[in-house]
C-alpha cells in the first residue's frame, strides 16, 4: 500500500535521470512529492504553439529544451548558445549571442518560456536572442500574479524543475499519488480548520496541484501558510512552557548598585538601553528563567546592556546546595562564591574584543574573567602577566578546573564555550551574541551538573520584521534598542553613477592616505562559483577574487588589500579579520560575511558593489560597519539602477535611518526570500509569503498559544505532535 512515507519509486517507475533530478529537488517520499508545490499557474491559452508561429511576429512560446550547445562563432569568436525547443506542435531553433552563461543556466529537459521575434534559420523557424523567463515564486498576497490570466483559464501548475524532472512529469506523478493514497490524515484539528475557514489537508493538496479555479489555489496556499506558521508556533510555545518549568537563580537586583557600574562607562546610556536593562533585571529577579532577545542595530550599544546584566549577576551569591534544588519550596539562601556568566560570541575576534572591554569594565570589582576560544585560553587578572591589560594565557584544563569549581565568574568565548568538557558550577546567565537560537538543550548543556537553568540573553543586530520575530522567536521576550547613542555621525550614503567610479576611488585614496581603512563588498566570491540556480544577473556580478586582484593591480597598487568570504576556512577568515583589525591591511574586499559584528573603528568607508543584489536591511547592516568612530563615515553604493524597482529601493535606503523600517520594506518589496539570512531560518517559500500577512500570523500564533495551554504535551493531538516535532529542532543559527 502506498502511504505518505513510501519512496517515490514505489509510486512510479524512475529512470536514472529522474532519480538524480528528484534527489536534487529534495523529493524522496510521496509526502515530499505532494509538498513540492507549484510556484505559479500558467494559462496555456496565452502561448502560441510552435506550429502556429508566423515569421516576423513577436510571440511567447513555452516548451521543453531538447538540445543545447555552447559554441564560439568561428568568425568573430563570439560566444554562441544554440538550442532546440519543443512543444506539442513542433520544434524550433533558438540562438543566443554573447550570453555564454545561458548554457550553464538552462538545461536539456527543462521547460522555458521565451519571447522574441520569429525568424528562420537554416530553413527552420527560429528566434534570435529571445528573452528567457526565469521562474520565481510569487506571493499569495498579490493573488493575481500567481496566475497567468483571467478566471476561465486552464490552470496548469508550473513547478520548480530540474534536469529530467519537468512540470508535466511532476503533475502526472502528483495526480497519481493523490488517486492512489487511501487517506491523508490531517494533523490540524478539525475545529481549527473550521474557525479559520481552511480546507482539510487532502482537499488543500488536490487544490494546490490542480485548482479548478483561482480561489481553489488561493485557499489551498492559505491553508499551507497557516499550517506552517501555526506549527512553528506550536513548537516555540512548547519550548517556552518547558523552559518556564525550569528553575533559575533569582538575582537580587536591589542590593546591586548598577548605577555605580554604569557611571564607569564614561557615557550616558540611551533611553532604549535603560529600558532594556530594566526588562532584563526584572526578568532575572525571578527564579523562572529569562528568555529574552535584545534586538538592536549595529552600534546601538548591546554590549553595555549585556555588561550591566553580567554585573548584576556576579554581584549575587549562589544558593546553598540543597538536595532538591528543583523544588521551589525548599530553596534556601544564596551563600558562598559568586554566580557565573557565560558570554558567547560568533567569532574569535569578537570574543577577544568582548574580553578586552570587559576587563576595562570589571577591573574595579576584582573578579576574574576568562577567555576561551579554539586557539587558546586567557585569564584576567594575573600576577605573572606581561601585558598592560594584566591577563595571561593559561591551559585549557587549568581553566576548565577553575570554571568548574566556580572561581571564575565571567567566561567569554566562542563555540568552545559549549563543548562537553566545560562545566560551570553556578551558571546563572548565558549571553549569546549574534546567535539567535539557543534552545532548551543547549541551555541545559551549558549548565550541566548545576541543577539550575541559566537565564538567557540573546542579542542580535539582524533587524527582522515583526511577523517573523513573532514566529521564529515565539519563545522569547523581545527588547528593542531602536536608538543610536547620541553624537553618532550619520553615514553619508551616496548612490554612485557608473561614470563617477573613478572619482569615488580618488575619494577613498584620500581617506586611506589619512590612515583610515575601507571595506569593499562584492555580491559573489569568485567567477567560478556558479550553480544551476544562478540567474543571468548573478553571473555578471562583481566577485571578491577578481575585484581584489583588479584593485590591487590597477587602482590601489600602493595599498595592502585583503579578502574575506565564506568559502575560506574558519582559520583563514579569522586571520584575514585580524589583519584588518590590526591595520596590516588597508582595504578589505569581502562578501557580506563581514556583517557579523566585528568592530574596526578605523574603517570609515564602505563601497557596496551590486547593491541591488542585497536586501535593504542587509545593506543597512553593512553600512553599520563604518559607523563606529568619530570620523565622518561614508557608504558608496554601486547598483544597476536601471529598473524602477531598484531605484525605489535605493531611494528608501538613502532615506531610512533604522534597520527595522528597512526589514519591513524588504518583506513587502522583495519577499522574505531575500531578507538577511532567510535561508537559514528553514521556513518554506509559502511560509515566508505568509509573513506579509500580520492577521494570518497573529491568528496562527494565538491558536497555537491556546492549544498549548489546553494540551501542553499534545497528548490529545498525537498527529500534530508528530508533525510539529521537526520544528522543535529548527535551527536558526
Ligand atoms: P552593538 O550593539 O553593535 O554590539 P556595541 O555594544 O559594540 O554595539 O557598541 C558600539 C560602541 O558604542 C562601543 O564603542 C560602545 O562603547 C559605544 N556605546 C554604547 N552605548 C553608548 C552610549 N549610550 N553612548 C555612547 N557610546 C555608546
Ligand atoms: Mg555587538
Q: Give the C-alpha Rg.
A: 29 Å
The top level CATH class name of the largest domain: Alpha Beta
From the coordinates shown, what is the CATH architecture of the largest domain?
3-Layer(aba) Sandwich
Give the integer mean of the pLDDT values.
84
Amino- and carboxy-terminal Cα gap? 39 Å
| Largest beta sheet: strand ordering | 13-12-11-14-10-15-16-9-17
Tally of individual domains: 4
- What percentage of the residues does DSSP assign to strands (E)? 15-25%
SS field, number of helical segments? 25
> What are the segments in which pLDDT stays under 50 over at least 5 consecutive residues?
135-144, 321-332, 530-534, 672-678
CATH superfamily of the largest domain: P-loop containing nucleotide triphosphate hydrolases
Q: State the secondary-structure class.
A: alpha/beta
Largest sheet: 9 strands, mixed
Small-molecule components bound: adenosine-5'-diphosphate, magnesium ion
What is the number of beta strands? 23
Determine the CATH topology of the largest domain. Answer: Rossmann fold
Indicate the percent of residues in helices.
25-40%
Shape: globular
Amino acid at each position: 500500500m502506498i502511504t505518505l512515507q513510501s519512496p517515490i519509486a514505489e509510486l512510479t517507475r524512475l529512470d536514472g535521470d529522474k532519480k538524480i533530478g528528484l534527489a536534487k529537488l529534495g523529493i524522496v517520499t510521496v509526502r515530499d512529492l505532494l509538498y513540492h508545490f507549484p510556484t505559479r499557474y500558467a494559462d496555456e491559452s496565452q502561448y502560441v504553439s510552435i506550429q502556429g508561429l508566423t515569421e516576423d511576429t513577436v510571440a511567447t512560446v513555452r516548451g521543453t529544451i531538447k538540445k543545447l550547445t555552447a559554441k564560439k562563432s568561428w568568425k568573430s569568436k563570439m560566444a554562441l548558445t544554440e538550442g532546440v525547443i519543443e512543444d506539442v506542435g513542433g520544434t524550433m531553433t533558438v540562438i543566443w549571442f554573447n550570453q555564454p552563461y545561458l548554457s550553464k543556466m538552462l538545461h536539456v529537459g527543462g521547460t522555458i518560456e521565451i519571447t522574441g521575434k520569429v525568424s528562420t534559420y537554416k530553413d527552420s523557424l527560429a528566434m534570435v536572442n529571445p528573452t528567457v523567463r526565469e521562474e520565481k515564486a510569487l506571493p499569495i498576497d498579490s493573488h493575481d500574479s500567481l496566475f497567468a490570466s483571467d478566471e476561465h483559464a486552464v490552470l496548469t501548475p508550473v513547478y520548480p524543475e530540474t534536469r529530467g524532472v519537468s512540470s508535466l512529469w511532476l503533475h502526472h506523478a502528483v495526480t497519481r499519488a493523490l488517486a492512489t493514497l487511501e487517506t491523508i490524515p490531517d494533523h490540524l484539528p478539525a475545529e481549527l480548520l473550521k474557525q479559520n475557514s481552511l480546507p482539510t489537508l487532502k482537499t488543500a493538496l488536490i487544490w494546490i496541484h490542480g485548482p479548478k479555479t483561482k480561489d481553489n489555489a488561493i485557499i489551498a496556499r492559505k491553508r499551507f501558510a497557516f499550517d506552517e506558521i501555526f506549527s512553528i508556533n506550536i513548537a516555540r510555545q512548547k519550548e517556552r512552557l518547558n523552559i518556564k518549568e525550569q528553575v533559575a537563580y533569582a538575582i537580587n537586583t536591589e542590593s546591586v548598585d548598577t548605577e555605580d557600574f554604569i557611571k564607569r562607562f564614561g557615557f550616558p546610556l540611551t533611553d532604549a538601553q535603560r529600558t532594556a536593562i530594566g526588562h532584563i533585571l526584572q526578568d532575572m529577579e525571578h527564579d523562572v528563567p529569562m528568555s529574552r532577545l535584545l534586538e538592536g542595530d549595529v552600534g546601538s550599544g548591546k554590549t553595555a546592556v549585556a555588561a550591566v546584566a553580567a554585573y548584576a549577576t556576579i554581584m549575587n551569591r549562589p544558593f546553598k546546595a540543597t538536595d532538591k534544588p528543583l523544588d521551589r519550596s525548599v530553596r534556601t539562601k544564596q551563600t558562598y562564591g559568586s554566580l557565573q556568566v557565560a558570554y558567547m560570541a560568533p567569532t574569535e575576534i569578537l570574543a577577544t574584543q568582548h574580553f578586552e572591554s570587559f576587563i576595562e569594565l570589571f577591573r574595579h570589582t576584582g573578579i576574574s574573567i576568562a577567555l576561551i576560544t579554539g586557539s587558546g585560553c586567557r585569564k584576567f587578572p594575573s600576577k605573572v602577566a606581561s601585558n598592560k591589560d594584566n591577563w595571561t594565557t593559561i591551559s585549557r584544563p587549568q581553566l576548565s578546573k577553575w570554571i568548574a569549581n566556580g572561581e571564575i565568574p565571567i567566561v567569554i568565548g566562542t563555540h568552545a564555550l559549549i563543548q562537553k568538557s566545560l562545566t560551570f558550577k553556578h551558571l546563572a546567565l548565558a549571553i549569546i551574541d549574534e546567535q539567535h537560537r539557543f534552545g532548551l538543550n543547549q541551555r541545559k548543556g551549558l549548565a550541566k551538573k548545576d541543577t539550575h537553568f541559566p537565564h538567557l540573553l540573546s542579542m542580535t543586530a539582524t533587524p527582522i520584521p515583526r511577523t517573523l520575530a513573532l514566529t521564529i522567536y515565539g519563545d522569547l521576550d523581545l527588547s528593542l534598542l531602536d536608538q543610536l547613542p547620541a553624537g553618532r555621525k550619520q553615514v553619508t550614503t551616496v548612490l554612485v553613477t557608473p561614470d563617477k567610479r573613478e572619482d569615488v576611488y580618488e575619494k577613498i585614496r584620500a581617506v586611506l592616505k589619512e590612515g583610515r581603512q575601507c571595506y569593499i563588498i562584492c555580491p559573489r566570491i569568485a567567477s567560478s562559483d556558479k550553480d544551476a540556480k544562478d540567474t543571468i544577473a548573478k553571473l555578471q556580478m562583481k566577485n571578491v577574487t577578481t575585484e581584489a586582484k583588479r584593485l590591487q593591480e590597477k587602482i590601489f597598487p600602493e595599498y595592502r588589500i585583503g579578502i574575506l568570504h565564506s568559502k575560506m576556512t574558519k582559520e583563514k577568515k579569522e586571520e584575514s579579520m585580524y589583519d584588518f583589525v590590526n591595520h596590516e591591511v588597508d582595504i578589505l574586499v569581502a562578501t557580506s560575511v563581514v556583517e557579523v559584528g566585528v568592530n574596526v573603528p578605523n574603517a570609515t568607508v564602505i563601497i557596496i558593489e551590486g547593491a541591488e543584489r542585497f536586501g535593504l536591511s542587509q545593506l543597512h547592516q553593512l553600512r553599520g560597519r563604518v559607523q563606529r568612530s568619530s570620523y565622518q563615515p561614508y557608504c558608496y553604493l554601486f547598483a544597476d539602477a536601471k529598473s524602477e524597482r531598484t531605484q525605489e529601493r535605493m531611494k528608501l535606503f538613502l532615506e531610512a535611518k533604522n534597520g527595522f523600517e528597512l526589514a519591513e520594506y524588504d518583506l513587502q518589496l522583495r519577499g522574505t526570500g531575500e531578507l538577511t539570512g532567510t535561508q537559514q531560518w528553514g521556513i518554506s517559500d509559502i511560509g515566508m509569503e505568509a509573513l506579509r500577512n500580520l492577521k494570518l500570523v497573529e491568528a496562527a500564533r494565538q491558536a497555537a498559544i491556546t492549544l498549548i495551554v489546553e494540551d501542553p504535551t499534545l497528548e490529545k493531538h498525537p498527529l500534530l505532535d508528530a508533525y510539529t516535532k521537526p520544528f522543535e529542532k529548527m535551527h536558526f543559527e
